[in-house]
Amino acid sequence: MASQEGVGKAPKEKIWTRDFVAICFANFFVFLGFQMTLPTLPIFVKEIGGSDQMIGLVVGIFTFSALAFRPYAGHALETKGRGFVYMVGIAMFTIAVAFYGFTSAIIVLLLLRILHGAGFGMASTASGTIASDLIPPSRLGEGMGYFGLSGNLALALGPALGLALVGRISFISLFLLCGALGVTSFLFASRVRYKKVETSPHKTTTVKFDIFEKAALPPAILLFFITVTFGGIASFLPLLTAEKGIPGIEFYFIVYAIFLMVSRTFSGQIYDRKGHLYVFPPGTVLIFIAMVLLSWLPNTMTLMIAAAFYGTGFGMVQPALQAWAVSSASANRKGMANATFFSFFDLGVGIGAMTFGYIAFTFSYSAIYVTSAISVVCSFLLYFVFFIRDRKKANV
Fold this sequence. Notes:
Layout: H1 2-5, H2 18-37, H3 40-47, H4 52-79, H5 82-98, H6 106-134, H7 140-165, H8 171-189, H9 217-244, H10 249-274, H11 280-296, H12 300-328, H13 334-362, H14 365-395
């Protein structure tokens, strides 16, 4: 009885172990380096003569590179081990980002973005899988929410820090700093005691190579329509605010990340107790409102309100969908479930960035967020299609 009443406090259900703290720090530093490039790279592309369409291509090719490598990462996590995939990914990430500032040719930048995306795809797929290995199954939603805070804290600091440094230091120094953060992540990753991959005695040692985990597809597809919005914010929101003469873009990312972190602290627990029905629909409504506000955007106050709504909504939706994806897969398919989940994340950001580059060129920056709002509605409606389908299967 006591263990049921205090399951969150029982020693065997502990989340904050030495290894979990280490993977959180490793995740924080690699994401900090990544987040610093998100709002500054479009400015760098403009500086070396790129257009809005080229910005979309530079952002998009990164995400499609990450997408291409995630199936390999998911497979390798189950064959070569967690640590191998994670540390190789961090190394590739670090090398690529450190060399950004040394190029003035778009073609070279695109090649570095491919390497950067591949490394990030491997590292982020591995880190989520490693975290899920270390979290007690009964607290998976809560634990993934806490793990996500490491990335959210990086989001709070990274874009604001990157934008604050632009104009104060050279782009070479800025991107070398991002590379140094990758090295720091590597050092923390080397301290994690990785769990060995479990193999069944009834199966051969050969692990089938495929490109997705079928059980993880419903939450991954829903995530795709949500992260389309992320491509528009990361790539074009700084340019929209500059065009309208609205100050405070640095604070947008801080407000967004604060509300993201706050919502993660309770949304994961709600998911564990009541399921995604109590998390996903209200989260998507908040994201929709944020997109409508950004399409209007008359002043800084509206920008901050949009940041709060978007942060709260995304903080509710993303960890719930990830926990759903991982818990739907068998124990020896968690790596591929994470690969599937983040592949659709990448696909949404990549398609969004490339599409929005064309929309910005043809129409306006504001039109990006009208399109984003429509994408959120698609996710909301599709969720209930999946929900009704699953209820019918459960009643058969």
